[in-house]
Specification:
single chain, three-stranded antiparallel beta sheet, 311 residues, 13 helices, alpha+beta
Length: 311
């Protein structure tokens, strides 16, 4: 949405995603990652292959945002379907995308359940917070929840998966993180810069010619954050992954008034997920071809890795 409504609506969502509200989730995220690693079963170094995307990365943000919203754990598979329908089926012809209304119906049912069974979670917060002295309509609550689900799941699991994809191929970077854990704070930002998962859609505000390309008002355009992050005018050694890059004003979360409000949560999930995977598997490599997503979000969907060492 555009200002002034955007500013008011966004202001309501900022408090639950402030750093002090996100920090307490670290232990929960770490417990989840350890459980997912345990669920991989007995590992034989040099022989065992795990899917770091299917068995690990994709579960983390789904579980976390579901818990924040107060939705049942058993619905995680549904959330993945909703995200797939919304983001990866965009090339299908109109009228052929069955099931696209399922997300709206699901959220409406969850709002009604929260109304009948109030509890302390993000959905209840949205249902009780006021805008200009009035509680939000169910449509506003539902739209906000859908935005959080869609924006908070695929983007983060793609970022986690891409980070592990990189580490599987760069033993020097794995060793650097093992030798100096403090480098992780820089590594997370460099993973975001080098493998930014989002290409954002926007509408042209007015007729404009950009480098000889005519752009008309209300045309749709795609703004690829990954390209901006590899702009040689913005970054030294822009095409290189520099694990301890200290100056890193990347665009992975967007820029300006629409900058991702969940960036603190995404960083936390990435940091913990990478730390726990490397703690359990200090040495690993790609075992087969990686399958990547389609659409506006780019990240590994199938990523077999061979475990070479366990701890």
């Amino acid at each position: 949405s555009d200002p002034p409504f955007h500013s008011m609506a966004r202001r309501l969502l900022l408090p639950p995603f402030a750093p002090k509200q996100i920090e307490p989730w670290e232990d929960k995220v770490r417990e989840l990652c350890v459980r997912l690693l345990d669920d991989m079963g007995e590992i034989t170094p040099g022989e065992s292959i795990v899917d770091a995307a299917v068995q690990y990365a994709q579960h983390i943000p789904v579980n976390v945002i579901g818990k924040m919203l107060g939705f049942p754990d058993e619905d995680e598979e549904l959330f993945r379907k909703f995200v797939h329908d919304a983001l990866e089926r965009i090339t299908e012809e109109p009228g052929t995308r069955e099931g696209m209304d399922d997300l709206g119906k699901y959220i409406a049912a969850q709002i009604e359940d929260h109304r009948e069974n109030p509890r302390d979670d993000l959905t209840s917060y949205l249902m009780n917070v006021e805008l200009d002295g009035n509680k939000l309509s169910d449509d506003h609550v539902g739209g906000s929840v859908i935005l959080l689900l869609i924006a908070g799941i695929d983007t983060t699991w793609s970022a986690i998966g891409s980070s592990l994809w990189h580490l599987a191929q760069h033993p020097g970077d794995r060793q650097r993180l093992a030798d100096d854990p403090d480098v992780m704070q820089f590594a997370v930002e460099e993973f975001l810069r080098a493998y930014a998962p989002v290409t954002m859609a926007r509408m042209v505000a007015r007729d404009h010619e950009f480098h000889g390309c005519p752009m008309k008002q209300d045309d749709w355009v795609l703004l690829p954050f990954p390209a901006a992050n590899r702009d040689p005018e913005g970054f030294e050694r822009a095409d290189e992954f520099v694990i301890d890059r200290e100056e890193n004003r990347h665009s992975a979360f967007g820029i300006g008034i629409h900058r991702c409000l969940g960036s603190n949560l995404a960083r936390l999930e990435m940091k913990v997920a990478i730390e726990e995977f490397m703690k359990r598997f200090p040495n690993f490599e790609l075992a087969d071809e990686t399958t990547w997503s389609t659409g506006q979000i780019r990240g590994p969907r199938v990523m077999p890795v061979r475990i070479l060492e366990t701890s």
